[in-house]
Each structure stands twice: as C-alpha cells, then as structure tokens.
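Final paragraph of the annual report: two paired records, presented back to back.
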Amino acid sequence: MARAGTGTNQEAVRRHNLGTVLRYVHRTGSTSRASLTSQMALNRSTIGGLAATLEDLGLVRRSTPVASRAGAGRPSAGLEVVSRRAYVLAIDVGVDRVVVGRVGLGCDVEVRARVNLPPEPAPEHVAETIVGLVAAVRADASPESTLVGVGISVPGVVREADGMVVFAPNLGWHEVPFAALVRERLGLTVDHVIANDADLGARAEHVRGAGVAVDHLVYVSGDVGVGAGVITDGRPLGGAGGFAGEIGHMSFAPNGLRCHCGSRGCWETQVGAVAIARAIGAPADVVPTLDAVLDDFDGPPESLHEIAHHVGHGLANVINMLNPQVVVLGGYLASLHRLVEPEILAAVRSGVMSAAGGQVLVTRPTLGADTVLVGAAEAAFESLLADPAGVLSR
C-alpha cells in the first residue's frame, strides 16, 4: 500500500519538472532531449514524457534533430518553444513615457506601443493610458494564444508583495497602489506582477543579455535618477523589504547638493540626468530623454569628463561592496558610457580594490532599449513557468 500523500508528492514533482523543462526551452529557444536529460539528471523516458506533455499543451514542438557535441551517435530529438501559444503583457512605465509590449513565450517581443507622459503624471492617468495601449497590442493577437500574465516596471521603490509604489520621486508618486489600479482598469484575471525597473533590467540581462553566463551582476539604471538591480549567486538581491539597490542615494559628496530624497550629496546629484543636462548646457525639458540627447554627440564635450569620473568612482564603491562579475549600465548611462568609456573605466580602476577590479566587466545592455520591457515579461511569465498545465487550465 502506498504511503498517504505519495500521489500528491509525485504530482508535485512532475509539476516541478514540467516547469523546469519549459523554463529551459523558454530561455534557450530550442534544445534537444539529450541536453535536457543531462541538465536535469533525469532518464530519457521521463524527459520524453515531460516533452510530450508540453507538446500536448502547445507550448513546445519538435524541431530538427540535434547532433551530439561529440558528433557520434544518433542525433537527439529537438524541441523548440512555440512563441505564440502563450503571451504576457509587459508594461514599462518611465518618467516621460509608458511602453506596453505583447511578448510571446521565449520573450519574443511581438508588438509594442508607446505614449509619452506629461511631467509627474497622475497614477490614474498612467493606468488609463495603459488600458489603451493594451487594447492596441492585443488587437491582432491570435485566438489560439493565451494571455498568462502582466508584468509592470516602475522607476521607484516598489513593495512587490502588494504592488505598492512606495516612492517614485521622478514621477511624483508616494504610496500609490499602482498594481491594483492597473488590475482594476484592465479587468484581467491573470497574475499582475510589479517591480522596480532596475531589478527587472538586472533580471533580463542575467537571463538573456550581458550576464547570461555569470552569477553575479549589477544592472545600473539611468532614467532621470539612478538605481540598481543586483544578482548575487544567480538570485536577485531584494533586501529585507525588497528595496535593495538604491545606489543613487549612497553618500558621495556629503557637503554637496540637496537630493530629492532629503539627504545631501547623494551620488544621483552628481551623475543623475539633471546633473548631466546641466553639465552639457541642455535645457531642463530634455532631462527625461537625455539618452537621445547624448546619442546625438559624435564625441564627448569637455564637461562630461568630470561626470565620467564621478560615475566611475561611484561604480568602484559598488564593485568593492558587491564584487560582481559584470556591471551593465542602462538608460542614459549606456549613452554616456559610449561617449566616455575610457574615463569611466580609469576612475573605476583607480577606486576599486585590485582583486575585485580584475574580475569585473563594465558594459552596456545586450538587449538595448528593450532590457526593462523584457525583464517585466520574464516576471510575468513566472506563474506559467512554475506550473504550465495549471495556468493553462484556468
């Protein structure tokens, strides 16, 4: 006689394994059953059964057999993701715009729509704008494609447990239940996930971008302000309340300018978009689109060299503290890096401990402008990847 609960445990194990297989194919796009057997340490018949279930669900399909690396033996049956079987809505709220993407399984951004926002927009206005963008990107979705989640990025401090935007200074938001606002207006029954933009940028670059092969990564976001998403030992670093990564507010020049957070001399007052616009003599109204302004420069103006030193010095502090393998500079910091990379790296080298500095790569996002949008999509896919059959049967 089987022990009580054995069947339930076996079902849980199978559900976990099914999700693990789908997660692997979702991240790689295509693979072979032999590779899955090796990765998951399961026998071939078990992998075959899991693959067959995912095929029945329409999430994967057979592809051209894949030869072994050694080149010997019969090629292994291939599997590839079916992008249009399931999709999510990825929502990237910026200081000056909101972008909504329809993203298929495998994180294929099928279509996107964008609307510019006024300064310090009301949360309700942003939520209503999202409703219109969602309607636009869903208009031509295949009737066989199932919506499985909504992921939302916000440039601020987010309490992910209840979707509260605690503080988004560049939007002018304080204690805004933004996930609830969006959920109420969209009227969708799927999971809604909300997170800080830098945290989602780190997730995307770790899974699909500059940090695919590393376990320790810092993504530094430049979207008017400065924040960071941190991956350590392959996992996101959230902190006790989920608010880790506010590196823009580390003390940099104690007697410096007053920061909007209330402190004086935060790093953001030296390298934020407002400081850079001031340095290059740009008007205040270009601050939200500073990346485009910097992209128009063929070479750096003299005034950016001091900014580059401040960026590198601050990064050295971050590297000394977190010891990442890769630092990815996003937003306007990516545009700045293109112009003054040697100066930034020189300042990093002068401030970082030799042991940590010898391991780190400072680079720009591999995913480009889609980094945060892809991160929001990855977060929205999480429920499907955890329980494929359960989510599709809802």
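The closing record of the year follows.
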Amino acid sequence: MGTDDQRRSLLRKKPITEIDDEVSGSKLFKSLGLWQLTAIGVGGIIGVGIFSLAGLVAHGSETSPAVGPAVLFSFLIAGLASAAAALSYAEFAGMIPRAGSAYTYGYVALGEIIGWFIGWDLLLEYIAIVAVVAIGISGYFDAFLSGIGITMPDWMTSTADEGRGGLINLPAILVCLVVTFILSRGTKAFGRFELVAVGIKVLLILFIIGLGVFFINGENYDPFLPSGFGPVFAGAATVFFAVFGYDAMSTAAEEAKDGKKHMPKAIILSLIIAMLLYVAATLVLTGMQNYTDIDPTAGFASAFQSVGLPVVATIISVFAVLSILTVMLTFLLGVTRVWFSMSRDGLLPRWFSRTDRRGVPQRVTWIAGAAAAVFAGILPIKQVADLTNIGILAAFIVVCVSVIVFRYTKPDEPRSFRLPWMPVVPAFGVLASGFLILQLHWETWLRFGVWLVIGLIVYFAYGRRHSLLNPDSPRHEQLRRERQVE
C-alpha cells in the first residue's frame, strides 16, 4: 500500500448510514427513557466531586497548595469549560445515538486514527474514574465505621504511599466488584437502580445544604483565597473530574428508547442540576469548617463532626457511599460501551463485543471492573484523579473540534439539537480544556503519553488491519460466515 493510501486509511471516516444500520440492529437493549438518562448523567456528575474532591482541593496536599473557600471558583471554571463541551456532545448525541460517545464522534468527523486514540484514551480514563470513586467511597466507609466505634486497620484501608502503614485499600476493591455485579445484571435493572439512587443522592445533598447553612461561620471564609488565584486553576483541573458525567452517559445512547430526542435534553439537564448543587454545597462546606481542618477524603462528614453533629456525620457517610455508587455505575457503563463499540468496529477483537441474553457485554464488564479494583487498591486518589482528567479533557477537545468540522462538512445532516453560537462555543471548549490540561503535573502527562504509545502499537498491530472500514479486513469474511450460519 502506498503512502497516500496509508494516510487515507488512517483518516477513513465511519459513514453515518452504517451507524444507523448498526443502531437499528443493535444487540443492546433499548430500555432508557429521558429521566433515566438524566439520572445516569446526574449520577455520573454528582458524587466524589462533592463528597471527596471539594474537600481535597480546599484543604490542599503536599503537591497542591490549599485553595480554601475559593474551591467554589474552581468548580465554576470547570463547569464553564464543561458546558461548552456539553453542548457539543448534545449536538452529536442527537445526531448519532450510538454507543461509544467521543470515540464515535471523532471516528465519524475526524477519521479512524483520531477515533482510535480517543477510544483507547477513554478505556483507561473511565476505569481510572471508577477507581477514584471507589477510593472516595472507602474514605466515607471508614468515617462511618469510626462514627459507630469501629476502627479498621490501616493496612487494609490505605495505600503504601499514604504514609499510614497501609498495603491495600480493601474496601475500594470490594466496592468495585459490587458495582460490576450490579451492571452485569442488565441495563434495565441498572437504569431502575440509578433512578432511585440518584433521587436519594439529590435529597441527601439538599439535606446537607439545608442543615449546614445554619452552621456557617463567616470567619471560615477569611482568607477566601489563601494561596492566591493561581492554585484555583489547578484546582479546576482536578475538580473537572466532577463535572463531566454526561460524557459517560452519552455512551448509553444506543440503549435509549429515543436517543435522538432524549440524549441532548438529558445532557443539558444533568449538567444544570449538578452545577447548582455544587455551588451551594461548596459554600456550605467551607463555611462550616475552616479549610485547613477539612478531611480531604470525607469533607462533609468531618464538617458536621466539627460542629458537634456526629450522628449527622454518620448518616452522611452511609448515604454518601450509596450516592457515590451511581458515579461508579455510570463510568463503568461508559467504559464497557466504548470497548464494545471499538470491538464491533473491528478495532479490537470481536471476542469483546459478545453480549448475553440481557444484552450485556459481560466479558468487558468484568475485565473493566477487575482493572478498576486493582487501580483502587494500590493508587492514591489525587494521582488517579489527575490521570482521568487529562484523558477526558483530551476527549472534550476532540468532540469540540469534531462538532465544528462536522457542522461545515455535513451541514445538511439532520440534527435534533444544534448548539448555539457556532463556532464560538466549541472553540471556547477547546481553549478552556487545553488550558486546564496545562495545569496538570508532568507525571500525569508522562503516564498519559505511555498509554497512548501502547495504544498506537495495538492499533498498527491489530486495529488498522481488522477495521471494518478496511475492505481487506478478515472480519468481513468472519461476518459473512456468521450470517450464513444464522
């Protein structure tokens, strides 16, 4: 194959007509309505951001100066950047209701190699997100046990680098496996669980805000910017983890009853609900307790403990575990659907896209769940959170660029939602996401680069040759034989 042919093979784009055929004949069950989709989005956005990362960023760490009450600004900056990307996702989701999210959008608009990199990126990032949330749950579980007089040994509740004599975070590992089991029961059961759990979560946060506002001490807001404005941007890059759950929710588009109509609405609704709750919750958290005393792993539990309400702290710890589970479920769903989609396209072995009688890709579900358990058991929360953010920010850049390219290359393609102020909004999303990426530590860039190099090797060793867009792909003959058997 000549150089020009090789270049074209790297940039070949997946036709929308093929996507429509795949969606209509999908083996994934269509069982999700608007409110279930919105619940999945809210479930993915609200969770560890409020219950763990808000306290972590406000308090600071050895490598990151304390942001203090200005953590509010960190959330607003992250939310503004996320909103631009959310509108881009909404336009694509209303046009291409297919499993895969940013992977599929990049594949359709920019070509196979870009789609591959984003898909490969999301496999790692979503698994890491599940691990981060599991670590956050572990912190609240430990706070709950302490509240009822039970102390777990450090060796089984912390990782070696935390300096507490720990070896492994066993609660985090166990919760990863429990969530994997729930997701393996099927999308219909998962959707019902998510709707109920997210309802409980929202009520819990409203309860925290409503009660906590009576214990706000204005002196805790002084200084509001203890380390200046610079760390606020670095904090925004960390808490960005807390404002992009709709990205994973969009991977469930193929399982929506009416994806083209409901996906854009669910994306926008979920982000609006989440940001309103985040703003109120961060003000209450930093008003109740001085930022220097906030527990970075269980912020609200420590805040209510500090004002003499240990019973409330215990209640929060119990319900925080349940509510954060929805984040894990959303992102575990995300990684399995991206993996399934890449496998179905021929870029990864067909073995991964096999589904059971419930329409669940069980193999990738359990592999991803086990990988998240390993991450959660041995890595610290800050390190994993930064690793996830660089990947999602990269995906946001690709989606924002893709929506601009696709609007001008396919202007007549039917769209159930058109984002406003094109191309200003997606261009802002690109700039904001790029700026936040630059706030992350060089170690995060190094880990991300290594993962992408591994992905490049896998693509050229397997994906490019087996892609269904390659007319010489061995998968075509395999599919013909399967159709003859059927």
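The chain has a mean pLDDT of 81. This concludes the annual technical report; the extension proposal builds directly on these records.
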